[in-house]
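User: New here, please read:
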Amino acid sequence: MTDGQAQQRANDLANLRYHWGSAYRISWQAGQFCAERLDNGARVRTSTASKLSAEIRTDYSAMPVIRS
C-alpha cells in the first residue's frame, strides 16, 4: 500500500465517522471498511468506503439509530 492509498483510506474513514459516527462504529478491519450499529451491534463490511456509505444509508433508512 502506498502512502497515498493509506491517506485516502484515512480520509474516507474520517468522512464516514463525521457523518455516521454518532450512530455507527466505523473502522478498518482485515482489509475492509466496517460499520457496527451502536444500538444493536449489527455489522456490515464492504471493500470500499462508498459501498459502506450506501449500506449505512440503506440500513439507517430502514431502521434509524437513536442518537444521543
About this structure: The helical segments are 3-20, 49-62.
